[in-house]
Design a protein that fits this description.
Helix content is 41%, strand content 20%. It is α/β, with parallel strands linked by helices and 502 residues long. It has four domains: 2-85, Beta Barrel (Barwin-like endoglucanases); 90-137; 164-239 and 256-413, 3-Layer(aba) Sandwich (Pyrimidine Nucleoside Phosphorylase, Chain A, domain 2), CATH 3.40.1030.10; 422-501, Alpha-Beta Complex (Aldehyde Oxidoreductase, domain 3), CATH 3.90.1170. β3 and β4 (45-54) form a beta hairpin.
Amino acid sequence: MAIVLKAKRLDISTGRQPVVVFNEEEATKFGIHREDRLKLKVGRHTDYVLADFTDEEVKRGEAGLFEEVWKENNIKTGDTITIEIIKRPPSVEAINKKLLGNELSYSEIYSIVDDIVKDRLGDTETTYFVATGFCQGWNNEEMYYLTKAMAQTGDTLNMRGTVVDIHSIGGVPGDRSTMLAAPIAAAIGLVIPKSSTRAITSPSGVADTMETLARVDLTLPEIKKQCETVGATLAWGGSVNMAPADDKIIRYTYPLAMEPYSKMVVSIMAKKVAMGVDYFIVEMPVGATAKVQSMSTARDLEKQFQYIGRRFGMKVKVHFVNNFEPTGHGVGPALECRDVLRVLQRKQTYSRTLERTALRLVANVATLTGKYSFGKAYRLGKKALDNGSAWKKMQGIIKAQGPQKGITPDIDSEDVVGDKVITKDIESTKKGHVVSVSNHALNDIARILGAPFDKRAGIYLHKRIRQKVSVKEKIFTVYAEKEERLKLAEKALLETEIYKIR
């Protein structure tokens, strides 16, 4: 059924989904329901949109167009447009099938991913699709299909050299070991086109942290060129059309501060497949307040990573980390960045734990290539830190990606946070030893302080597990860019325990 109406431009945007608004009374007579998928035609142009209603803004005989629609199709108010109601797409049928507990074929999974990429699915359908990862789960074959579909619906990259990558599954604050590992790996001769998502369940991701130093929205040609000249990138995966469905799906997992394990595995592997990675190390923190809380779950995830890797001819190893506290001292983009630069610049205050973790990751991925023993790679990485070649690689990365305003490639670690920040030292109310650190509490307080959006917001830990603490001794410092954020965090700290001291 074709409906011919006059266009009316509306200064409203969803930021994502193209929407056409109808007069509610008229739409009911046409048989259009809210969130129906419609085909819009204007001249030779065709677009797929979602229906919405109003009883005031749009009159009978009109169709109100959100900005995504009229800008994309160059439609002016008064233009004649044609609307057609389309049948339920195969992707929705596939989502329904999965919700009922049935296994999906590759073509069914591809239809879902392709429609997500092309914005043919509404918020409701996409939310239900994400929910299948929790309520039904995906078997290994389906996860392989999903990874393949996500990689094939975007761009891919092919590079010369020994292409490796190191990726942490995240969920633990203050762990920037993979960011530190990138320049070390490049310094010993490996090619590492590292791209990362922004923070999902933590106060900062690698992309958020690197963005305090340089731009991270690189294009694929820029990534390829930089890897050929510098040997490494520290980019944001969302800036390229690489497994684009992943970044769209992340919007539906972020508000819950959680994501299904199956989605996490597919998300990570799709990006690595698209990037042309041959050897891949997955850092998997395991602990009571980490994303993965038991070794049995960790072993199951290891099998999934390795199964998908084998299907694509990629060598994959999972590196387990018993993560009872942050690897570094800082939590939040700038504070975590400072931790990384302190190691690279060999500052007296650098985190030995962060250094050891990064060196082990580099040694593990180098061993996968068959060109190094673990011991040799570890020693070469340590030498690259001590002689400054790893720091020179990081300087090359910053320069190639484009330093942020006020940043130079030779920036001192102590200048990263700057002085335009509000701080408050938090003192212990009891004496004893630190017996545990709550990663959940760190995440919550750092977010309240403004991280990851406020780059200099976060927490700096002065004490680690097993260290002695005295009454009124400084145990951590909170950082905020806005006074109101600091006050909110102070109130939250009255009911939240970061350190357990006995």
